[in-house]
Design brief:
single chain, 337 residues, mainly alpha, 12 helices
């Protein structure tokens, strides 16, 4: 009998690489590997970027290894400082009397300065506030008990991602590659580019937003003897939530406004106007830093984020800009957009 041989064309191999990439990306969120994905790509991008910069000063075969040691040393120092600050905060700011006093002042000030029809949404006093918190904890006891396991899982995933990203960054690529491997590496390169464009650009925007917010909270208000409660916490929240495009700023602004409202309605209005001005500036920053890189408007990112949030929850909200950027890169390479 005559033997028949099947030959896979380059076009078919390319399609297979697309299918594998889609399956992999679609599986990351349901398998709860997003933290591993982000930490792995993040450390890889950091090592690659810092190594390129360090080569301007010393270029040896050990440059990348020295860079890795330097980066992990800095990370370790930051973690130690963070733990020390957390311990100091818990020792100096979490006494029951201190919390009760701050809660009482915030609640009383808010109820004085808000319209009467909104007062029913806030607790009457600090005791009512405590009872509401206890009731909330009691009604969600199972969820809270599972949070420890979820947190441990996420920390393990982050650690594994850091290891994988570091190993890949240190690994020397093979010169001999099949066409299939070349296509897979091309998909990964485009995904890495999308990750770099979104994460690092959004980090710059979040830093600018945090600095501008810090100016009014830590400098301008204290000049007029106005001190918003939990200043350092609000600044930290501004930076962390600022890493989420659009949605994150809305959340941080709401928290800051509530804190300002505890002082007076006029202070809340001032800070709202200030934050609105910051966001008008951020529209230009988004257009320049993110929009120019992925050629996407704010409404496009917002739509895809809401779609991913409805499908995958908070993890989808975080992954949406990265995935959308990758899709646009692939479509642009094929000259479809």
């Amino acid at each position: 009998m005559k033997k028949t041989t099947t030959c896979i064309t380059n076009k078919q191999i390319q399609i297979i690489s697309y299918i594998l990439m889609c399956i992999s990306m679609a599986s990351i969120i349901p398998l709860h590997l997003l933290s591993c994905f982000i930490s792995g790509f993040l450390i890889y991008e950091i090592i690659t970027s810092v190594t390129s910069y360090c080569k301007n000063f010393f270029n040896t075969k050990y440059t990348k290894l020295i860079t890795v040691i330097l980066i992990f040393t800095i990370i370790t120092i930051i973690m130690i400082i963070g733990v020390i600050n957390i311990i100091h905060f818990l020792k100096t700011h979490t006494y029951e009397s201190n919390i009760s006093t701050k809660a009482k002042n915030i609640i009383s000030n808010i109820k004085i300065h808000i319209p009467h029809f909104l007062s029913s949404f806030f607790p009457e006093n600090e005791i009512d506030f405590k009872n509401q918190i206890l009731n909330l904890i009691e009604s969600n006891l199972i969820i809270i008990s599972n949070m420890g396991g979820i947190l441990l899982h996420e920390l393990i995933m982050i650690f594994i991602g850091l290891i994988i990203g570091t190993i890949i960054a240190l690994n020397k690529p093979s010169k001999e590659k099949t066409y299939f491997i070349q296509q897979l590496l091309k998909r990964l390169y485009y995904l890495s580019t999308a990750f770099h464009n979104i994460v690092f650009a959004q980090t710059k925007i979040s830093l600018i937003n945090t600095v501008l917010t810090s100016i009014i909270i830590l400098i301008l208000f204290p000049i007029f003897n106005i001190h918003i409660p939990f200043q350092k916490t609000l600044i930290t929240i501004t930076f962390v939530f600022g890493l989420l495009p659009i949605i994150g700023n809305l959340i941080s602004n709401f928290i800051i406004t509530i804190s300002a409202l505890s002082i007076s309605l006029n202070i809340a209005i001032i800070i709202i106007i200030y934050l609105i001005l910051i966001h008008k500036l951020e529209y230009f920053l988004n257009a320049k830093i993110i929009g120019n890189r992925i050629q996407a408007k704010s409404w496009e990112l917002l739509f895809i984020m809401l779609l991913f949030d409805a499908t995958f929850g908070i993890e989808g909200l975080i992954a949406a800009p990265i995935y959308y950027s990758y899709i646009k890169i692939e479509l642009r390479k094929k000259k479809l957009i």
